[in-house]
Amino acid sequence: MKEGKMASSFTRILSSKRNVGILSLVGGSVAAGFLLHREHVTAGEPLRRRYPASAEYPDLRKHNNCMASSLTPAIYAKLCDKATPNGYTLDQAIQTGVDNPGHPFIKTVGLVAGDEESYEVFAELLDPVIKERHNGYDPRTMKHPTDLNASKIQSGVFDERYVLSSRVRTGRSIRGLSLPPACTRAERREVERVVVDALSGLKEDLTGKYYSLTLMTEQEQQQLIDDHFLFDKPVSPLLTCAGMARDWPDGRGIWHNNEKTFLIWINEEDHTRVISMEKGGNMKRVFERFCRGLKEVERLIQERGWEFMWNERLGYILTCPSNLGTGLRAGVHVKLPRLSKDPRFSKILDNLRLQKRGTGGVDTAAVGGVFDISNLDRLGQSEVQLVQTVIDGVNYLIECEKRLEKGQDIKVPAPIKQFK
Amino acid sequence: MPFGNTHNQAKLKYSSEQEYPDLSKHNNYMAKILTAAMYERLRTKETPSGFTLDDVIQTGVDNPGHPFIMTVGCVAGDEETYEVFKELLDPVIEDRHGGYKPTDKHKTDLNPDNLKGGDDLDPKYVLSSRVRTGRSIRGFCLPPHCSRGERRAVEKLSVEALAALSGDLKGKYYALKNMTEAEQQQLIDDHFLFDKPVSPLLLASGMARDWPDARGIWHNDNKTFLVWVNEEDHLRVISMQKGGKMKEVFTRFCTGLTKIETLFRDRGHAFMWNEHLGYVLTCPSNLGTGLRAGVHVKLPNMSKQAKFDEILSKLRLQKRGTGGVDTAAVGGVFDISNADRLGFSEVELVQMVVDGVKLLVEMEKRLEKGQSIDNLMPAQK
After folding, report:
1. Any idea which positions bind ATP (chain A) (predicted)?
2. Are A228 and A215 in contact (CB under 8 A)?
3. Statement: residue B1 has pLDDT above 60
């Protein structure tokens, strides 16, 4: 069998969604069970000064992030001695939020998952954080719908006098391997090996090539920069404080198809980031390729004994709680010079459940009236629903722009209901 | 990883070859010494507080280094790191500290009376004099590994001990997270305030976690004796003043340190120290004395001499810009200090600085008058 030893041992531990269900039922005692197992494995108890939880509790008085809002001393005391089966602890999960107090205007999440089990073992903190970040989605009671059937999309081809490019991205994690904040070098290399191996099985318009960050030539690097594909070592302290940039650039790389319309980042902020993009306004085709590519990749890794991290309550599991569910951001670069100057612009976007960014991505400014417009939500609605929301919303925005061009007035649409 | 020990056990499921870092593009002492075979032997170990090999080397893996400057590439998380990982650290220490062997003994001498001269460096050239070192409190993990609780305990113990200093050493503590804007500005103006580390060498080792919790600055009312709490080490102790009276600076340094050590001992705590490594600090480069004695000195003519670097090397001195390590000299003013830390006592190192700076100033005066300095050339110390 071509599959590595690691694949079989890990899939034996957590091979099916059924097993994950069992783990989540058992909940807190899982940690205790695995702690007992750990005692059996290690020779002696590590000795270090032990302080009560109250002496270890972080000073969050100047902090403004979701973790700081939810982490009471009581919750800290309850969770601080727990660890996931891989040994990931609460202090590690919250380190990024402790180190980055946040901004008065922008509320960051303030914690990360080191592995799939983090979402179970530290549920008491993660559930309220998820609820706050995802506008009331309650992981304890609600189910997340997954739908990658692109044929359900209506319209989805934009007026190219306005829409310059269309893009859909998400992330996927390989079940059984720790996530970027916690992974060892061997695990990270295993993620790379598993994914690159699977991607080599893609055919036709998806046929492509992998460029490892450690091995790429200067020319390849320049080409990737020119194509706007190359990602760099994270500089944001939000990411570096979580430990995601360790051992850079070991195990990191970029894969893309020959047509440069389907692109995968390996071991950046997540195990994989999957991107489908094109110039122009054919969002339907972009999403169709996105779904087809994702399903093909999933099939290829399953052939080799692996699967993606996913469950019913949280959808696809990724490093940052903000990317749970679909992990999907579908967006366009669209010319809205008049609409963007209208004082109702923000409210219109809000009601359409859309957000604006500059054309450099998150935290950049718009240039020449061109905006990056994408969905606000990630969790609680399916991929099809979110992409449809973007399509309907962007069509509405273009209509507004056209009306303003003709000197006509525009209307603020009624707010869209969440969690359909 | 700072705290997760189970994590090290989980890692052992992978072979050593699968975990061994890619050091092919690296230039630091750790990368020079850590072979795959050594990695295999050491990866199963951990110190009693749970510091592992990967914790030791993470900063060196993340920072490949510079073709010209050889960084250390590893840190200690506790006192026992130097024992448990001696197979790696002994050769690193030997390489970094000029051939210091695992069997060598380090002499500690904090008796300022043993220093000859040093009270008459020409203040027209020597603008300021400064001596610094570090101290770690035995029984507590070091900055790369400590928990918030431990770090706060180190702060509390230190503040209590320092509060008992009297006479010209009487002073006040300013916690980083509590200081007022006015206090902050004053500390900046005095050149006392330290900031959150930005160097990736320090960040990658985990020393800046939870900033600014339990970090602070203590200084005496006279502003000549200063202690940093929980920056790169538990304590950094600094004695400084304008002018060239290095003997005075060193005397206050020794008196202050000895008093602090006594105050800690009265409270049941010792500094980390042993016969072989001297004072134990976070970075292997600071072992032994942890001492850097230096002056800011005007040497515009000397610095243009072709043999300037060679002379410094013979005198066992190093130059830095007046902003400290990795800065450039401004207006011909250099920071000149001892290059060594381990294998020489505190008195011996300060003696080298005093004698060396005296010679450099003499050479500068000759060059000013257009005279030759050939007969002043020193032998290798």
Report:
1. 165-169, 228, 273, 329-333, 357-362
2. no
3. no
Q: When comparing pLDDT for B189 and A190, which is higher?
A: A190
> What b/e readout covers B35-59, taking b as 16+ CB neighbours within 10 angstroms?
eeebbeebbeebbebbbbbbbbbbb
Structural domains of chain B ordered from first start: 5-97 (1.10.135.10), 112-376 (3.30.590.10)
Per-residue pLDDT tens digits for A62-116 = 999 999 999 999 999 999 999 999 999 999 999 999 999 998 888 999 999 999 9
- Report the C-alpha gap between A401 and B10 in whole angstroms: 57
- CB-CB neighbours of B378 under 10 Å: 17
Residues of A in contact with B20 (CB under 8 A): 185
pLDDT tens-place string over residues B157-176: 999 999 999 999 999 999 99
Taking CB atoms and an 8 Å limit, are A98 and B2 in contact across chains?
no
Contact A309/A116 with Cβ under 8 angstroms?
yes
Mutating which of A41, A96, A115, A185 best tests the B interface, going by the most B Cβ atoms within 10 A?
A: A185
CB B249 within 8 A of CB B119: no
A154 vs B: CB within 8 A: no
Three-state SS at A283: helix
Spatial CB neighbours of B275, under 8 Å, sequence gap ≥ 6: B105, B106
Q: Which residue is closest to B14 within chain A, CA to CA?
A: A186
Cβ–Cβ gap A245/B21 under 8 Å? no
Q: Which amino acid is at A200?
A: S
Residue A152: pLDDT over 70: yes
Q: Give the CA count within 13 Å in the CB-facing half-sphere of A67.
A: 31
- pTM for this prediction: 0.88
Q: Which domains does chain A have, with CATH numbers?
A: 53-134 (1.10.135.10), 150-406 (3.30.590.10)
Percent of chain B with pLDDT over 70: 97
